[in-house]
């Protein structure tokens, strides 16, 4: 159980509530209390009031509601030297979410409880690629639905609170349309509607990087952060941005496509149709292509990292080159937004120091922080994400929590 809440933020304060209506304020207070229980459980109401700064009466009312709804369990009696023995509360881990992460080549499915514990999982591979026919996409969705129903059946003693789907591509949160997904095969169908139809339940669907940002805040150490960027580095580059307390979405939820900034106008053709995008050199796409050619077999990120860690100089070099290009790209984002924190997520983060050291070095080389007259406050923290392997899956869980008013 995690009991510390390390703060790497500009302002270690509770969420901004200046413009909250009473209903929003209530939702935010529920969110704050659930997160405090998540961090400190088992915990008493009095300690929750102290930890959150909320009025004890407010804490009691909201905890009562959460117990009635089944999110929180009244637990064991605490022990004090004298006086009343307080009741400790915990999150109800019978509440679970089905999470689906749709990525190029396969879908990862998992049942995850409210504490973030992964209870069961499955993977459904598919051959289809971008530009596949609608029927092929529907067949793949049908296979995913089969696996989803089997997982739900295996945990039928639990209370399913919803279904979250993370997908590489941008999802308009009003229309649920998948707007930009050059790497995945869902362009020919209405993905959201098709999934709801075959899974027979409402779903929450969101871009993988935004989902990742949500999960890093809920399950990670950054709940209090008001400015942070989650950068997922794998076969592509995805960014989830939290600026001044809000997720930056832009028009039609299309903001954050830094992977498609032009780095080299004369470079190779990108899947988006432009040339020389950051994603071509700053993601593992190129490195995997080169490594696969060299080893005469398909090499994925996990294998490349394993090779590098076992002393393969070529593999380490490919990772370092990728990291350097990514760091250069992040320097542009840093110049624009000056976030205090970059969380590096995605499978690329499995490389640990092999990716972080060259990435940070490149970032520092290309930003103002190397100048003597620029304050040190412009130097961001770089940390490896909590879920390098399962970040989008955990993000899908975060989507469901967000839907229930648990997350901003
Ligand atoms: Zn591109």
Overview of the molecule:
There is one protein chain. This protein is of the alpha/beta class. Helix content is 39%, strand content 20%. It contains twelve helices and 15 strands. α1 crosses α3 and α2 packs across α3. The protein is globular and about 70 Å long. The protein starts with 21 loop residues before the first helix and ends in a 5-residue tail after the last helix. The structure holds zinc ion (ZN). The site of zinc ion (ZN) has 6 residues, from loops.
Query: What is the 3D form?
Result: globular
Tally of separate domains: 3
What is the residue-mean pLDDT, rounded to a whole number?
A: 86
Order of helices and strands: HEHHEEEEEHEEEHEHEEEHHHHEHEH
Beta-sheet strand percentage? 15-25%
Kindly report how far apart the N and C termini lie.
23 Å
Spatial order of strands in the largest sheet: 6-5-4-7-10
Structural class: alpha/beta
Number of helices: 12
Keywords:
408 residues; Arc Repressor Mutant, subunit A; Nucleotidyltransferase, domain 5; 3 domains; 5-stranded mixed sheet; 12 helices; 39% helix; disordered N terminus; binds zinc ion
């Amino acid at each position: 159980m995690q009991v510390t809440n390390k703060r790497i933020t500009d302002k270690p304060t509770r969420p901004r509530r200046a413009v909250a209506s009473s209903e929003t304020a209530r939702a935010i207070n529920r969110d704050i209390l659930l997160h405090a229980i998540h961090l400190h459980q088992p915990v008493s109401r009095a300690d929750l009031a102290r930890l959150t700064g909320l009025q004890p009466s407010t804490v009691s009312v909201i905890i009562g509601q959460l117990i009635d709804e089944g999110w929180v369990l009244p637990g064991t009696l605490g022990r004090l030297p004298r006086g009343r023995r307080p009741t400790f509360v915990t999150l109800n881990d019978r509440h679970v979410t089905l999470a689906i992460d749709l990525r190029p080549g396969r879908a990862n499915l998992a049942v995850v409880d409210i504490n973030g514990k992964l209870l069961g999982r499955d993977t459904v591979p598919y051959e289809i690629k971008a530009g596949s026919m609608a029927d092929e996409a529907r067949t793949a969705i049908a296979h995913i639905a089969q696996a989803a129903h089997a997982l739900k059946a295996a945990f039928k003693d639990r209370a399913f609170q919803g279904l979250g789907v993370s997908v590489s591509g941008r999802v308009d949160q009003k229309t649920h349309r998948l707007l930009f997904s050059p790497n995945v095969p869902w362009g020919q169908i209405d993905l959201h509607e098709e999934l709801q139809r075959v899974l027979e339940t409402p779903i929450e669907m969101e871009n993988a990087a935004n989902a990742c940002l949500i999960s890093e805040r809920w399950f990670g150490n950054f709940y209090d952060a008001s400015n942070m960027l989650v950068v997922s580095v794998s076969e592509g580059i995805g960014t989830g941005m939290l600026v001044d307390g809000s997720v930056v979405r832009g028009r039609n939820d299309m903001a954050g496509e830094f992977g498609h900034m032009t780095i080299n106008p004369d470079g190779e053709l990108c899947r988006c149709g432009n040339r020389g995008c950051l994603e071509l050199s700053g993601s593992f796409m190129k490195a995997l292509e080169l490594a696969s050619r060299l080893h005469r077999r398909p090499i994925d990120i996990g294998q490349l990292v394993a090779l590098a860690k076992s002393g393969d100089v070529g593999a380490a070099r490919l990772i370092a080159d990728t990291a350097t290009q990514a760091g250069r790209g992040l320097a542009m984002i840093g110049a624009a937004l000056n976030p205090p924190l970059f969380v590096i997520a995605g499978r690329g983060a499995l490389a640990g120091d092999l990716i972080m050291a060259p990435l940070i070095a490149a970032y520092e080389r290309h930003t103002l922080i190397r100048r003597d007259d620029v304050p040190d406050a412009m130097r961001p923290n770089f940390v490896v994400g909590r879920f390098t392997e399962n970040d989008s899956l955990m993000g899908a869980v975060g989507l469901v929590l967000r839907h229930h008013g648990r997350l901003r």
